[in-house]
Each structure stands twice: as C-alpha cells, then as structure tokens.
Amino acid sequence: RQLADRLAAVHADEAVVFTSFHQSPLPLALLLRLAGVGRVSAISDDYPGSLLDVRHRVPPGVPEPERALSLAAAAGFALADHDGPALRLRPAQAPPPEVGAPGYVVLHPGSAAQARGCPPELAARIARALTAAGHRVVVTGGPDEQELTARVAGDVAADLGGRTGLAGLAATVAGAGAVVVGNTGPAHLAAAHGVPVVSLFAPTVPFGQWGPWRVPTVRLGDAAAACRDTRAARCPVPGHPCLSGVDPEEVVDALRLLGVTPSARSGPPTGGSSAGVTTLATIGGSGG
Length: 288
Known about the structure:
This protein is α/β, with parallel strands linked by helices. It has two domains: about 1-75, no CATH class; about 100-285, Rossmann fold (3-Layer(aba) Sandwich). About 30% of the residues lie in helices and about 15% in strands. It has a seven-stranded parallel β-sheet with strand order 6-5-4-7-8-9-10, sandwiched between helices. It contains ten helices and ten strands.
C-alpha cells in the first residue's frame, strides 16, 4: 500500500510501463490503478483485463530499444519527424588523466551476471594481445571488481577498477576508440556514445535483441553454445565454453575490422561519426 500511496502522490494522469520481453507489466499496472492513474500503457502477452488501456504487442526478437520506442508510439508519444531514435547525452566530462589522449581501447571484463562477463584468464590474455599490437588498453570495473581488473590489467594496461562512478565510466567510454566487453552495461554506454564494440557476447539471451544497438559491432564467441537462450545469470556449462574459446588475436582482428588501429590511437574516438549505422560481423563459433 505504501508504494501505491507514493505513486498517488505523483498525481500522474498517465503511465507507460516499460519492461523487458520476459517481464510482465501487470503487477505495476495494478499498483498504478490503485494509485488512481487514469491511463496505463504497456506491452503484455498476458490478457490484462482492465489493468491496461493500451495493450501493445511486439513480435519476439525485436531489439529492446525499438521495442520500447514502439510502445511509446502506441501510447501516443511517437518520435517527431525530425527526431531520431538516439539518446540525447550530456557532454561527457573529461576522462581520468591517466588514460591519456582519446583513442585507447576500453576492456571491461566483469558483469553483475557472471555468465555474461569475460572469463578473467581470457581477459588478461586479451589485454596482453592488444598491448602487443600497439593499442593502449584501459581496464574498467566496479568497486567490487578491483581484484579482477588488477589481474586483467597486470603491468600492461591502465587499471581503473573501482575508481570511476557512472559519469566517470561514461567519460572513459566516450573517449575510447573501441570497447571490448560482454553483454553488460558498458556495451550500451558505448553504443549511446557511438563508440564501436567488440562484443564478447554469451548467448544466454538473443544477440539481436540485447546486443549493442545502432553502433558498429563485431561479435565474438560461440553463438550456438549449450547456454543459448537459457537466460542464466551464472554459466550453466563448466568452463564457460561460449567465450573461453575466443582467441585474443580475434579481438585484435575485430578492432582492425572496425577501423580501430594503433596508428590512430591518439586521435578522436573513431565511433563518433558512425552512430546510427550498425555493421555486424560474427567471428568464431557458429552464427545465430
């Protein structure tokens, strides 16, 4: 009842409930009705009865941002003709001085969901391979990942583990030539800033639905691994085989494919002029 009272205190006339494809909006829709909200819109496969005024349906596999935009349009809030489906971002603050000039490669090995992160030993080998190829590497992670980032960075990369908040992480990503990352938040920060992504994407959820959106991307890993479509938070297969078979030289090749070369590393981020255009390649494993 307390939550319903808090919602009522907002005095909202209308609500649009955004959910992921496997979530139901109906519990929140019930609370919104109890709070007196007059019009509620959501995507729902389940019959909503009187809980929703606009019941929107979306076919499986639609990228999550497009899914949300389609709901907003169905609720009456379509993008204006002159507007594009990109985020409006505040100007990024300067990245930490120790990362140097823009154009470095961000390597983000961790994830709150273990199944979606990069195996630590592989991440350390990627850092060494990128450095040997002439790239400057910056390893990022949260306060609880400092041991991981220190292990991955070793003596070849800058270690920012636990040293940036969200704004600092966004600034670091914005200054990168590319980001090497699993299926986790910094991949989408990179996409928002138009920075190319080498996606170490565990297939626990569909890549087409959850991969970096509208940004040049190379996906690596075994897309047909046994964990495919399990939505597992922890790897259900010993050895993390969907990613452990990635050769670090594939990451070096992926950066080359994306046009990110060591010779351009002191220049501006390569992704800024490519926002809104997706170039997808899959290397390693099988497609899907």
